[in-house]
Amino acid sequence: MMKRTILLLLFILPIVAYSQIPFGLQPSFETNPNGHYSTGLGIADINNDGWKDIIIANGNDMQRQRLVVYYNRGDGTFNADPDWQSDDIDYHGHLAAGDINKDGYVDIAVSVYLGAGGFGHPGKVKIYFNQGGELEGTPSWVSEPLYSFSCALGDADGDGDLDLAVACGEPYHSIYEPGRIFYNIDGSFNTTADWQSNIAMGAMDVAFGDVDRNGFPDLIFVCQETDNYVFLADDMGNIDEEWDWYSDHPDNYMNSVDFGRVHNASFPCFVSTGNDQLGGDGKIKQFTFVPPVPQHSVPTWESNQVGYGSGILIAEVSGDEYMDLLYGSWWGPLTILTGVCDFWDPIPAYTALETSVVEAIMMSDLGRFNYQPHTATMKLIAKVGTIVLEHQQVERINGVFVNGLLIDKSEYCHAEMSNAISFKNHIMPGSMVVVEYDYMKHGDIVISNWDPGKGNFIYYNDNNPVGIVEVPAGQTTLEIRGLSPVPAREYIELSYYSGDMHGLSLSIHNMLGERVLYRELGSIQGAGRERIGLQGLPAGQYNLSLHAGNTSRQARFVLTP
Known about the structure:
Elements: H1 2-8, H2 14-18, E1 29-30, E2 38-44, E3 53-58, E4 67-70, E5 84-85, E6 91-98, E7 107-115, E8 118-128, E9 141-142, E10 148-154, E11 163-170, E12 175-182, E13 195-201, E14 203-209, E15 218-223, E16 229-231, E17 245-247, E18 254-260, E19 269-274, E20 283-288, E21 296-297, E22 301-305, E23 309-315, E24 324-329, E25 332-337, E26 339-340, E27 343-344, E28 350-356, E29 358-364, E30 371-379, E31 384-388, E32 394-402, E33 405-406, E34 412-413, E35 420-427, E36 432-440, E37 444-449, E38 457-459, E39 478-484, E40 491-498, E41 503-510, E42 515-523, E43 526-533, E44 540-548, E45 551-559
Parallel strand pairs: 17-21
Antiparallel strand pairs: 1-38, 2-3, 3-4, 4-5, 6-7, 7-8, 8-9, 10-11, 11-12, 12-13, 14-15, 15-16, 16-17, 18-19, 19-20, 20-22, 23-24, 24-25, 25-28, 26-27, 29-37, 30-36, 31-35, 32-33, 32-36, 34-35, 37-38, 39-40, 40-43, 41-42, 41-44, 44-45
């Protein structure tokens, strides 16, 4: 009731309402557009340096373009241009990330919507395997021809490795295809699908999730022109080829999907964005599954009209342990709805000022400022092949113990940022499972944008420390001792120490490397403070440099409106 009261005061006290959501109204950082039609998005440590990188698949249905990677610079920041790009080009759709061949490096699976000839020619799905910290330039595995805009990694046959599920179809021309699964066979795949759904669909997205809570992941397809479908796994983890549930509402035109729960006591659900470009009502729909799973059901909740709905994410943002709902649309803003009971308040708690053609939304603590260690202890009452951790976004699995024994990573699998762990050997009733992991507490938001004139966005979380001081060991002649307030608004105050009588100066650069402010401070020895007005600068992330002779020190801060 308190949460709803605060939301109803939105127009009277906008600062109070927005203070629940720890993000500025403008992106903190934007990559260079480079004419990219950015679509697929992944967050994963590609080069194994301990920092999450950003993977983008470009092209969509507009132009054949490359898969690219932006490497984390070791502090949560990124270069404006990609650090790596694929050798091949395609009409890339969405992607999935995970260690497919269990060599300790994250691999990338990518859907290709259309063939080289464009519309009228089927695409494919392909895998770029990671070769010791760098993705191969050309994918070494490519599927049979198929139309696919999205794919997902998960254990579809109960053997503890990542299989590849593929959403198939091309709704613009009413081309329907069966959904497909390619089974992982010791890190390799057949080029022809091992599993096909018994019904053809206009599927736009696909997700794994334990819908019926039997301890094995099921498969969800959301579609345009055809119904949405769920295919359940049996008690050995094998997903049924015949559908077990379909959505019962007319004019189904859905775009993207996410699976989870509003809070830990809720039943599982999936949410999907409606996109009314071709039809439908353009609303987000939630389907909640109370056991036993019915053969069909209507939405348990609907949003207000979104229009061209696109990327969607269930994540905890407002700090109240209820999952919030982040979504975007074509030529619309990032929007956040807060969780209330078993659904979401339809009145936005946050609406960004910047608009774009959003394709995908993900969250991660990119600077590792607030990784939260957690130990989950579970005594099982039934056989399971997959356990689901209580936190929606899991940054890192540190160790898995079964009956007191640490099991090797080759004995289980999980997709990047997923909270599901699937086991090679199913866990028997009465067993004790302990999982040590880090979860996301204050995550940053990353968005892939289709707009060729706009880059991809990062909204850095205001709760994360934003000043990163670089002081070499043993050198104290020049130090940045602090920046406040955090985040900055109209000014930033610098505290520093200078050990020599050199002329001091400071400069501020935006994330494109452009200098936006310079100031001479004079010859100062000892501790000092300097208040710097920031009026006229747009909201975003900035680097401050303090200079004394040939020595300089840097710190990072975020400016909010």
